[in-house]
Each structure stands twice: as C-alpha cells, then as structure tokens.
Design a protein that fits this description.
There is one protein chain. The protein has 150 residues and is an all-alpha fold. The protein has one domain. 79% of the residues lie in helices and 0% in strands. α1 packs antiparallel against α4 (117-146) and α3 (81-109) packs antiparallel against α4 (117-146). InterPro entries: Hemerythrin-like.
Length: 150
C-alpha cells in the first residue's frame, strides 16, 4: 500500500517530522524559560525557523495528500476525502498560527513583549503540542499504509 506514495514524498514527510520535532523542542525550551530566563538568540532563531519549516512541510503534506494519497493511495478503497479536506484546512490554520508565533518570538528576541509571559507560554505550548499530535497522526497513517493487505 505504501508504494502508492512516492519514495521522495515519504522521505520529505519523515524529514519534515524530524525538523518539526526539533522545532517543537526549541519552542518548549523557550516556554519553559518564561518569564525570566529568555534566551533572545534562541527566540530569534526559532522565529526565523518557524515560518520556513511550516511553509515547507505544509507544501510537502499538501502534495502528498492531494497527489499521492488521494489519487493513488488507499483513498480509492476507503473514502478519505473529508479527512484530507480537514488536514488541508488545518495546514492553513497552522500557517497562520505560525506567523503569529513568529512575530511574538521576534518581539521576545528583541526584548519586547506585546502580550504577557503566560499568553506567550500558552501560544508556544498550544502550537508545539498541536504539531506533535499531527505528527503522531501522520505516522499512524503512514504505518497503516505500510501494513500488508489482509
């Protein structure tokens, strides 16, 4: 079943998962350092990475969902159209959230805060916990696709 997804798409998704997990760890470090132990360089670095990482992985996921999975994968046997639409919609929402978080991290890196440390922590944790759940879901889908047909 997994052979329906191109090898390059699968490699890109797995690499994207690793990159996102690394980003999540960085965001968690920042959240744990709030409110008084902020590393401005780490904030600036995370701000620079978040949009780049999310834009790239969303493009990879959307291509895999629309091209590989929906057209050639198990979606032909099982109707996953509603799930695929939901995942694509969530990607758009995640990109918007990443942009907001990027600006907040830039402000932190520059020693400014437009919102409270509690709000920043909530934003960070909400983002990286959501990404971790999404990665877990994608891995479950890939594992199910890799399983031999009964």
């Amino acid at each position: 079943m997994l052979d329906a997804m191109s090898g390059s798409a699968l490699r890109e998704i797995v690499a994207g998962h690793r990159e996102q997990i690394g980003l999540c760890k960085t965001l968690e470090l920042i959240a744990d350092a709030l409110p008084d132990n902020i590393d401005p360089a780490l904030c600036r670095s995370a701000a620079g990475a978040i949009h780049r990482v999310m834009t790239r992985i969303v493009a990879v996921e959307e291509k895999a969902l629309t091209d590989d999975l929906a057209q050639r994968g198990p979606a032909r046997v099982l109707d996953l159209s509603a799930t695929i639409e939901r995942l694509l919609r969530e990607n758009a929402e995640d990109l918007c959230y990443a942009e907001e978080l990027q600006e907040t991290l830039r402000e932190l890196g520059d020693g400014r805060r437009s919102v409270s440390a509690d709000a920043i922590g909530y934003m960070l944790r909400g983002f990286f916990e959501s990404r971790r759940r999404r990665i877990a879901l994608e891995r479950e889908i890939l594992t199910a696709m890799a399983a031999p047909a009964p």
